[in-house]
Amino acid sequence: MMASTRSLLRTKSLISNLPRFSSNYKCLDVSVNNDNNITTVTLKRPPVNSLNLDLLSEISDVLTDLKKSKSPGMILTSSSDKVFTAGLDIMEMHKPDPERFKQFWYALQDVWMKLYGSPFPTAAAINGHAPAGGCLLAMCCEYRVMVQNFNIGLNETQLGIVAPIWFIKTMLNTISIRDTELALTTGRLFKTDEALAVGLIDEMATDKADALKKANAFFERFEMIPPIARAYTKDSLRGSDIEDLKKNREKDIQTTLSLITQPKVQQGLEFYLALLKNKKESAA
Ligand SMILES: CCCCCCCCCCC/C=C/C(=O)SCCNC(=O)CCNC(=O)[C@H](O)C(C)(C)COP(=O)(O)OP(=O)(O)OC[C@H]1O[C@@H](n2cnc3c(N)ncnc32)[C@H](O)[C@@H]1OP(=O)(O)O
């Protein structure tokens, strides 16, 4: 195809598919890059972008909008200069109200299914720490660029909890079985350079601007690839994991609720919360 025809087709598809985003997001900034029509979704829930029901619901909504508008791609990043996201909001798991917890877990499942299974390409510009649920969101994306000197990993065992099977499958889709087992059983948080060495991230960046530049460059790889062929291929690789959760969704919610409310697990969470608070006090 001639370059001029390609650019005309691209411009036409940009005009007809311009995504329309709700301006009502409280915990997200959503912007579309005029040069390539890639949407950047910025997590904005200070202080640490912990994933509570509100934030998860907004992420779920934006993913629906992007799919409907046939977006050519999305970058996920953070407004904080040191935390991508601190993972699930521990307050949603500490002494939870059962009905609220079910909604929270359902929203998390929704986000995972939509992000891991999105037909459009996705990249994470990880500009801060990404423990547990933060690592999960990053691994759901197809490409990860991470700013140096931060931590990423599924550290759930450090909190006395267990990463659900669909978290584990997401890591298995990213790094080797051996590295996944070692990382999960020890609750390992990888420094940026260690994450690169093991393949948990794809590129390192010096700062957020560099991470966004590299993440944007990732989408150039798809300029000559028909989106339908891309989407089917991704579905062939990831679809069965998503089907497994769809089939077991209710059971997953019930099991998680009954495990999280066990007194030993609650004690573990309390202890971990106290450690987080003490860290601040001893630093002051
Ligand atoms: C056999 C048992 C089976 C149990 C099965 C249950 C299955 C459930 C599975 C659940 C899977 C869970 C996934 C998760 O994501 S759990 C969350 C894990 N997250 C973490 O471990 C990160 C904790 N946070 C940190 O390490 C640091 O905060 C961080 C490095 C991210 C940033 O450090 P910084 O110094 O910048 O900030 P502070 O530590 O001072 O934090 C600022 C305030 O934010 C609060 N905070 C931090 N993280 C969280 C969080 N995840 N949820 C809620 N609140 C959080 C922190 O306490 C500070 O609050 P205050 O300002 O009030 O002191």
From TrEMBL:
InterPro entries the UniProt entry points to: ClpP/crotonase-like_dom_sf, Enoyl-CoA_hydra/iso
**According to its UniProt record, where is this protein located?**
Mitochondrion matrix
Provide one Gene Ontology cellular component.
mitochondrial matrix
Name the source's superkingdom: Eukaryota
What does the record give as the reaction this protein catalyses? Answer: (3Z)-decenoyl-CoA = (2E)-decenoyl-CoA; (3Z)-dodecenoyl-CoA = (2E)-dodecenoyl-CoA; (2E)-tetradecenoyl-CoA = (3Z)-tetradecenoyl-CoA; (3Z)-octenoyl-CoA = (2E)-octenoyl-CoA
Its annotated pathway reads:
Lipid metabolism; fatty acid beta-oxidation
Q: Which UniProt keywords apply?
A: Acetylation, Fatty acid metabolism, Isomerase, Lipid metabolism, Mitochondrion, Transit peptide
UniProt name for this protein: Enoyl-CoA delta isomerase 1, mitochondrial
Give the species: Photinus pyralis
